[in-house]
Amino acid sequence: MAQCVQSVQEFVQDSFVPMVAVLCSDEAERLTRKNKLNFAELLRPFCRLTSEGHLRDPNNQLQVVKNLRICVTKLVPGAAPQSSGAAGPPPAVALGPGQRRRLNRVVLSCQPQEGAVSTAVAAGDYDLTFNATTPWFEAYRESFLQSMPASDHEFLNHYLACLLAVSSSEAVPVEQFVKLSQEQHRIQHSGDYATPKWFIPNTLKYYVLLHDVSRGDEQRAEAAYEDMKQRYGPQGCYLLKINSRTLPAEQNEQIPDPWSQYLHRNHPQISQDRDDDDDDDDDDDHHPAVSSSTEENGVIAAEDHRSADTGAEGGRPDAVSDPAEKGAGEAEGPTEARGACLTLTDHDRIRQFVQEFTFRGLLPHIEKNIRQLNEQLVSRKGLSRSLFTATKKWFGGGKAPEKSVSEPKSTGGLLYSPEAPELQIRKMADLCFLVQHYELAYSCYHTAKKDFLSDQAMLYAAGALEMAAVSAFLQAGAARPYPAHYMDTAIQTYRDVCRNTALAERCALLSAEILKSQGKYSEAATLLIKMTSEDSDLRSALLLEQAAHCFMNMRARMLRKFAFHMILAGHRFSKAGQKRHALRCYCQAMQVYKGRSWSLAEDHINFTVGRQSFTLGQPEKAVQAFKQILTNDSRQTATQQGAFLREYLYVYKTVISRSGLSLPHLPLPFIHSAATRVYFGHERRLAEGEKQAATHVSLDQEYDAEQASVWRELEEQLVAAANRGPVPANFQPSQCYLNRQTDNLRHPLAVVEEPMLVEVMFRNPLKVPLALSRLSLLWKLARDGHDAAEDDAEELVGKRDALERETTQSDDLVTTETILDFHLAPEETKMARLRLLPHKTGCLSITGVVYNLAAASSPDTPDDDGNVSAPDRARVVRRSPDAWRAPPLAGMQKAETVVVDGKQDLKIRGPRLNHTKEDKMFVRYGPDRRLEPIITSPMPLMEVFFLQFPTALLCGEIRKAYVEFCNVSGVSLCGLRVASTHPDFFTFGSPSASTPVTPLSPASAENCSAYKTLASAPGSGAARETLVSADDFGPVSNVVDVPVGGALEPGQSTQLPLWLRGPDQEGVHEINFLFYYESPEKGTEISHRVVRHSVFICASRSLSIQASACFSAVPPQRGPDRDGGALVFVDVENINTSEAGVREFHVVQVSSSSQHWSLNKCINPAKEKDCKVSSRERAKLCFRATPCEPPQATSDDKEMLTFADVNLGNERIVSSATPCGDFFFRCRRTSESRRGNAGSSGSRTPSCSRNLSEDTRKDPLHMGNRCNQLDLNIIVIWKAYVVEDNKQLILEGQLHVALQAVGKEATSLTPKQEAQEMVLLKFKSDPPPPAAPPSAQLSRLVKSNLHYSETYAHDFAHNSVCVVPVCLVLSNCFWTDVDVTVDLRHKTGSSESGECACCFAWVGQSRYTLALCPRETRRLQLRACFLAPGVYNINTHAVSAAPARRERDDDAARAEVAQHGAGPALVVITDSNQ
Fold first, then answer.
1. pLDDT digits over 490-527, tens only?
2. What is the Cα–Cα distance from 898 to 1131, expressed in whole angstroms?
3. Measuring CA to CA, which residue among 1270, 1420, 1414, 1405 is closest to residue 1344?
């Protein structure tokens, strides 16, 4: 139970006190009414004695009475019921309906104070705050115990004495005393009155003479008092002087008012007549008398003040004798103070009077009666039980053995006569209990209990058990434990046998308080819970609340039981009409259930709290409670949530109407602020006919961090190219699309007169649809040059009317677009795109969204989008009949659609900071300024369109498309550039190279070749060569200047051809274009703007080209028909799988590009010029390549390349023109960057060789590589014919093969990158590798050929030695000096030499050393000597060569390498005589 102000001993003692009646004359009553009090009320604050009293028990032992309190009430008799003539059971002790209503008002008037001290309890991970004390329960308990009607089975509530008060102003006061004494005797003994009840027949009468000091005659009063003492004795009368104050109290004078704390307690004692008048009313437990805050605050105070002085039903009447006089007193003014005519001296006199009455009158009277009763009982103590039973009738009339016909024996229907010995024992026990002689009282109760149980008088037995247990508990220092089983038996008997709930409740209240004092909270809680029933909601609520506090006060706190019983108490409080107490209980229980996944319990509590708060006139709290139901993830059904939503909207609308807020905050739907996305600029236009707009950026695209880094790199390249230098340090990439993953630390830049699109994510957490209407953004704009000039859209929204909200609202600052209808399906997450159009520059801040919220009715047939149709939306909202089984709130009886107008803020938290030490130690977040753009001055705006842009190409296929640039702004643009992730995919054509004529329109370009084509006679001889500078095709960069011919003026557009080439690798390729443009005005906040375009190209396989080369054995010749050089073999394979209807490819031309070599002619044995390759076929082409003449040195040192075209058909495609030359150079740069080594990649140009170090120059390996280097690029141009839609289309394309060196095969297919193998770490350096032998490439420095007569006839008979002249031709194949050594003494070890001849020798000089200049040919005249006819191989000489020796070269650096010789040189020697 909760903590109480009183201790348990004080509480029990104050529950049973001596009862004293008051009977006053009319003049005495008028005298006390001067103080707004009757005589009983006048004495009430002074009824607790501050001094100890004494009396002697029957054993003559002195008994001390401490802290005694008496109860003085006005005597108001009640009519006795008409007797039926038969003996019946004692009247039932029960509370009438009127008394129950007063108890209800007592609890209602005692509410917890606002800001009262609460108790904080920490149990585990729970932190609870609740009221440790429950004054409303104490007030109820006190009022309940005081309102207990008197019963015949006990005497605790019977009057022991009667005060007779007469005024000294009476003519003959003694006569008035006689009248009052006779009146008291008539009330007690006539039998006409059932109430009040009297303790003993000889009631103590105490005579009080009231004297008005301010007006009365003191001498006359003294004389009357002396007469009274002569008549009644000095201990039976008293002169009380009051009203000493002669002047009215001043306004600022503090008058003590000890009556307020007693009279403000609502003691609902009323007369029987008043109860009878109220019997027609309904019971408060089922139909509460108070159900609104108006009744709670206004009606109760007046009614309680009026009823405080009315009589009680039997027990403790506490009212005035004349209700009319009470009403007259009230009419004087409720604000007048009580006791206004009394001084502090009068207070002391009253206190002294009460003490004198108690010590000199009441206690001696009680002591006398205890002795008398004890003597009567002791005289019968020695008799046997049978004799004692037999003489009961002789002693006291005995008991009436008859029982009620309708009641069984065990119902307590036995009726004792007033003089029965059992009742005498009980009477003695009660007297001892009232004067705190608990030991004797316990003995008497215990004895009476046995007698009552023996007689089966269960009501009497239960009363004796109850008081025996209380007496045992109150015995000071007694070894006897508290007999809790006595109380349990008494409660069960009262409730189940006697059907008397009031007595059972009193017993339970006493026992629970005693158990609590002993720390037995579990037993106390069990006892209180058992006392709950359906007959009284107020009692059940209070007991359940106390049981909950018991669970909280246990050593091991039972928090969930506390919360559960608080909810039960709140429910019963609500049924009893105690709305405030119900609200308090639910709020305290919520602390336990909140955030513990008890979602259904939370919903129930929040719903009830919302209902109660609204009923009590606290709509703000109701809104918060309903908000919790709707915002938490609820497991309620859709019907239940719909009821919650409708009541919430109604309450919310009520709050808005009372507070006057124009735009309050709404909790629904949820807004995921972090997912807000912002787009700056116009939305991308869709395709217009054949035009395809650039994809750019839109909110429909998902953000990709990798793609963002790619776009950033491209933009950096464009900015660097525009600045002709590095990227500026303050460079920031263009951001027209912002989300949670972008960098939002800086204010984004937006352009005036360009829209902003804000995408807000809404989520409906409910299972019912939500209808949003008139949805728009809230913003404020800080104008440039205006100090603190803010135009807040919230004010604008608050002022606009319904007509203005139906259309797009516009003003001079920002145009705000409004979404008229926005529906959210149950549990749906949906995006809303809201638009703003700024008209002024400045700093714009988007603060939130504003909308109307309503509960959308569930449609029978939703539309295609799942939204509610217009007729369904217009349907009225019907309340769910089973929503918590609660009626609708006041004002919602008529089903109607409730719409509230409100807003939600867009507050985005930035990323967590982790830069400094403080950031890492504390949780700090940076700003997120995606909703705070800076509106800048006008900027150019360009749109890009593509025409005839393909989506699928063959590998290497050339296709011509068109691109259109449109300036749609009011500002001219310039500096148009483009960068791409695949620079080899497209070209605009070279500005200086010859470009084919562009058709006027894309339609006129149908079936036109993308190449520059010239007519050529079939079978024309040598290739056509063209000398081209690489600089003619643009600088080596990924940034391309778009040739628009200057600036684009506002509204101007231009169209340019765009050649495309299919990627060399099959598959789907994502190709990104980034177009860059600027404003002619410099110094603007936005330096440039970009347009993005992404395209996916599906590349299919076409041809596979493999090329290889070898040096020709024929020495090089000079002249136009020179032979020698190298042979180039080109293998063409059709690897297409008949995709796109392509079955056959035609190789129409093979071109070459190199600084040193060029294709000369095709030397295929088959003279077929047209090379056709069907599916899975392969063709081999052989070409002769010859060295190019070195270009003449120029001052600018340009890289010059020779293009040679060998056409295999009737047309010659100029490979050095656009687009063939453009794609060649772009692919060449791509392949060079892919190889990652500029020195070993395309073209070992002289400029490159000049940059080599001397050490590298004299490296034999390097020199060998130079000698074996070919650096020949092959361009294979093909055509394919496709029939599509009954039209023949010509597909054409080109493939590139780079031959780097002789003997090394090259292919057009891009090699696949293999995963790099894991390499083990080495912690110890390996020994240096041995010197590598000279490369085999040095063995081809010099070509050697023997020229001789293959058949020679000689007359061996005439001359035995045959000498044959042989010419040795040595040719230097490279552009370097070579030192050659010819050794004729070399003997070959081949088997061929042994088979051909054995007698052969060279005659003359056997070793030659000579130097060959670049491309020089030298002849040596040799002679061979033969001794016999036969076939001889004269190729036995050895040729070794090395690069020419220079100064500072050591011998090791010029070690000669044996050269590859020609094949066997056979000569036939015959004998001419044979």
1. 999 999 998 899 999 999 999 999 999 889 999 999 99
2. 81
3. 1420
1422 CB neighbour count, 10 Å cutoff: 22
How many other β-carbons are positioned within 10 Å of the β-carbon of residue 2?
Answer: 21
CA distances from 362 to 75, 206, 351, 435 (A): 17, 9, 15, 10
From 1182, 1178, 1180, 1181, select the one nearest 1134 (Cα to Cα).
Answer: 1178
The whole-angstrom distance between residue 1338's C-alpha and the CA centroid of its chain comes to 74
Instruction: Describe the strand order of the beta sheet including 1351-1354 as a list of residue ranges.
Output: 1351-1354, 1466-1471, 1430-1433
* 3-class secondary structure, 731: coil
DSSP state of 887: P
* pLDDT tens digit sequence for 760-806: 999 988 888 999 999 999 998 887 655 433 444 443 443 344 334 43
Residue 407 has pLDDT above 50, yes or no: no
Query: What pairing do the DSSP bridges indicate for beta strands 1351-1354 and 1466-1471?
Result: parallel
Closest CA to 650 of 599, 611, 609, 606: 611
The burial class, CB within 10 Å (0-12 / 13-18 / 19+), for 632 is middle
Query: DSSP H helical segments within 724-792, as ranges?
Result: none
Are 1340 and 1111 in contact by the 8 Å Cβ rule? The answer is yes
Q: How far apart are the first and last CA of the chain?
A: 150
Q: Cis omega (within 30 of 0) on the bond before 81?
A: no
Tell me: cis bond preceding 196? Omega within 30 of 0 counts: yes
How far apart (Å, rounded) are the C-alpha atoms in residues 811 and 637?
A: 45
Closest CA to 655 of 677, 686, 625, 681: 625
Composition of the chain by helix, strand, coil, percent to 5: 30, 25, 45
- Residue with the larger pLDDT of the pair 892 and 305: 892
Kindly give the interhelix angle for 521-530 and 484-492, rounded to the nearest 10 degrees.
10
Instruction: Classify residue 415 by burial, with Cβ atoms within 10 Å: 0-12, 13-18, 19+.
Output: buried
Helix (H, G, I), strand (E, B) or coil at 510: helix
Concatenating the DSSP letter of every residue in 680-691 gives: ESPPPP--BTTE
What CA–CA distance (Å, rounded) separates 1368 from 1436?
12
Q: Choose among 61, 141, 967, 62: nearest CA to 507.
A: 141
SS3 category, 458: helix
Give pLDDT, residue 1367: 92
Phi/psi for 943 (5° steps) reads -120, 145
Mean pLDDT of the chain: 77
Q: What is the token pair recorded at 223?
A: 């004389």
User: In this predicted model, what pLDDT tens digit does every residue of 229-277 receive, in sequence order?
Assistant: 999 998 999 999 988 777 665 555 567 788 887 775 544 343 333 343 4
Q: Which one-letter DSSP state was computed for residue 334?
A: T
- Nearest alpha-carbon partner for 1459 in 1270, 1264, 1303: 1264
Q: What angle (nearest 5°) sits at the alpha carbon of residue 977, between those of residues 973 and 978? A: 135
d(CA 927, CA 911): 7
Query: Of 108, 91, 98, 506, whose CA–CA distance to 270 is shortest?
Result: 98
CA 1442 to chain centre: 79
Per DSSP bridges, beta strands 691-693 and 942-947 are antiparallel
Beta bridge partners of 1067: 1099
Q: What is the DSSP-derived secondary structure letter of residue 960?
A: E
Dihedral of the alpha carbons of 140, 145, 148, 150, in degrees to the nearest 10: -170
What count of residues does the chain have? 1474
CB-count burial class (<10 Å; 0-12, 13-18, 19+) for 580:
buried
Asked if omega into 1330 is within 30° of 0 (cis), the reply is: no
